[in-house]
């Protein structure tokens, strides 16, 4: 467990020798299924932590009780595990309300949090009136000017306050790990509401309190959070005085250019999993798309760890093409060692070992198709024998080698069959494949034949199910 420093402690990072191991977090709200864009954020955080021997926290931003659900939280845990990520620590904001109470008390004591009483309708009317006057629709801070008598009068009307953070109104700058020097002028923003009328807390506050408490060193998230960061740095500085590093990556978009939405269920990890996409292909595409690195299949997450470099992420949106994903799934399977798939193959009822896997992995669009090839190996299958080929196939059966059926049995067989039959090329090979596998194409026969075995091969060549 990391120490939980008191809010308000001025923590000083040691600059001596090597920096301490980083702490990163992925902080989804359990309000929907994760999509590939969320996977991109999760992977950047988790793999960066792995690269530097750091800590990866999965944090549920679940203070919005109306929209959060345990079912989505469980689905997120499942999806994160499917991606191959094992959080070092799991946190739930809903279990940390006491810490937010303390932060709120501190911000009030510092004079940075002030009560405001406007209703949503009143705020909307203010925004419209400012727009009509050509002014930006930011909050006019009327509540800051309320005098001592005004508050009880408003509360007597039955109003309850929400609480706003008083921004400094300055240029907040940081050195973004992806975007370089960034600045947000908080004078152009409304003072953010941190506590709702019903006393519940908003993400802008809870996220900052957690990042401080959990000693998060690097906040890596989508570029839709850049403005938030300007605001949150002000809050962090008010509470702690030490600011983590920030990195805002570009967002994934659909091939049409449309943004991904959790709510609309775009490209959810669950759907991709059910469609048989490989998690490593999803991870490779989610991490490498929209960077200056080539998108290519990887055989393990470790291979992606080595490629995590925030400076290589581009500024333009990254297009995520499901068709590219399918191709990458097939290419990934070709790279996977038997150990990586053994359990899943067994789950599909595949009894074959490494030899079978190496024989078929180059012919799969989806792992589940390995079961079809296992059916071809194990049989029984009805061989395809054209009448014109029957005599040739009977001859081929008679010439099946005796003795050990090792890796060169096919070569020995063909060496005998070719001169005996006088056939060559397609006329030689195609009828053999059709009879032995019942299919037009597939893995190399030299790898399949030893697996099919002499008995089944002999039956199939004679046109009998085997
Ligand atoms: N719950 C926020 C989100 O899903 C987290 C953003 C952050 O990383 O701070 O967008």
UniProtKB/TrEMBL annotation:
Aminoacyl-tRNA synthetase class I anticodon-binding domain span: 388-462
One function term, GO molecular function aspect: ATP binding
InterPro entries with a match to the protein in the record: aa-tRNA-synth_I_cd-bd, aa-tRNA-synth_I_codon-bd_sub2, aa-tRNA-synth_I_CS, aa_tRNA-synth_I_cd-bd_sf, Glu-tRNA-ligase_bac/mito, Glu/Gln-tRNA-synth, Glu/Gln-tRNA-synth_Ib_cat-dom, GluQ/Sye
Protein name: Glutamate--tRNA ligase
Principal subcellular localization: cytoplasm
Annotated Glutamyl/glutaminyl-tRNA synthetase class Ib catalytic domain residues: 24-312
GO CC field: cytoplasm
Chain's role: Catalyzes the attachment of glutamate to tRNA(Glu) in a two-step reaction: glutamate is first activated by ATP to form Glu-AMP and then transferred to the acceptor end of tRNA(Glu).
One of the GO BP terms on file: glutamyl-tRNA aminoacylation
Segments carrying motif 'KMSKS' region: 259-263
Alphabetically ordered keywords of this record: Aminoacyl-tRNA synthetase, ATP-binding, Cytoplasm, Ligase, Nucleotide-binding, Protein biosynthesis
Localization in the cell: Cytoplasm
EC number: 6.1.1.17
PROSITE patterns: AA_TRNA_LIGASE_I (PS00178)
Gene symbol of the encoding locus: gltX
Summary of subunit composition and partner proteins: Monomer.
Binding-site residues for ATP, renumbered to this chain: 262
'HIGH' region (motif): residue ranges: 28-38
Family statement: Belongs to the class-I aminoacyl-tRNA synthetase family. Glutamate--tRNA ligase type 1 subfamily.
Organism for this UniProt entry: Ancylobacter aquaticus
Reaction(s) catalysed by this chain's protein: tRNA(Glu) + L-glutamate + ATP = L-glutamyl-tRNA(Glu) + AMP + diphosphate
